[in-house]
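Box 3.1 A note on notation
Throughout this textbook, protein chains are presented in two layers. The first layer is the amino acid sequence; the second is a token string describing backbone geometry. Keep the layers aligned when reading.
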Amino acid sequence: MHIFILFASALGLAIDFAEVAIGGILSALFSAPPNKVDPKTLSVLLAAVYIGAVVGASLSGWLADRYGRRTVMIAAGIIIMLTAVAAAIAPDVAMLTVVRALSGLALGAYPPLVATYLTDVLPAARRGTLIMMTAAIGTLGPPALIMLVRYLTPLEPLGIQSWRWAFWVCAAGAVISTAMVWLIPESPRWLARQGRTEDAKRALAAFSGRSTLAPPPTPDRLHEIDIAADTWEARSFAVRIGFLILVYFLTPWSTIGFPLLSGAVLVNKGINVNDSLLYVAVANLGPTAGTLLAALFIDRLERRTALVVCAAAMIIVGFAFSSTATPIGLMASGLIFNMMSAILLAVLVIYAAELFRTEERARATSWPWASRGFGAILVPIALLPLLQSHGPIVMFAVVGVSLLALIVMLLAFGAQGAAGRSVR
């Protein structure tokens, strides 16, 4: 059952990440003839999905803590499927923008829901490794979709534009992933916290063949399963969630800004659209390689340390990407940046989920994710005009400042994390 859950989660994440990556495809296709649109219209289109994500992530955390992780994941999958179909048949950019905002309701909700559910059900000693491996498989979605679009762009099978085929593929994937989630049990940990003991036993039997709930921890075990240092636990929920909201708000300037605008950066450097899509596709292999590599040691390294190292590396590599014009340099720096970006985001989601109790966990992962969506709304609106007026180096200076602020926040106010330790 654990293996089935990991594959269901990985497929769901692949579709989610691929749908988000369509923004990068659209930024390249709509930045050059014959599909070129004005920068303001393009900025709004790219930001639309994140507007929906703010609302979706905010609601999903509350809903998942109240009605269950699995239930809300199924609802999100259905929304992704329906909006992908609507985007595929959108008659113009205005309608596409509206549909992308609606799809953001589910796209913003899905990753933190998966992280919450997996944190509930995976064994502590391998929790980080298994979540990272799941995320790694999920990151295959964007490069696969981008290469498909690149291949279909000159062909346009059945007279359908390549980006529309991308949405049809996402719709089909959403059907399969949602059907798989339908077959998994609800979190036994969540059911037990709701007082639904018999339901929790039945859910537990799906994992082990037994329906025996673990006894309450003895006093000498309470210290061992503390989820963080006393100084972190002593803070109110509002203070702890406020810290994570600020941290997450700083992440989209790099983790979203780079993949979203890298196609536009390449066009700005004078590279044609077809080659730009190739470079973007190669760079999007980075998340898979990086997340798989990180999975080997993530449970032996404190979460906060891993986050700081990733952010520092991204500052260096981001400026390398903005200042080079050679194909090898662009692909290598793009690959490394996306690799470190994926590690940072995956570890941050695990970090947040582990620092809160079961009854708080969905809100603690989803509400900060919503603030990430709010920051993501501002990213194309602020960075795309900056790119077009001042060039990539100035644009990446803003990205570098956001990463530096993230490092300061983590070191000054963040807990170490709960690598390899049980959660409550």
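The longest helix spans residues 358-390. The two ends are 22 Å apart (CA to CA).
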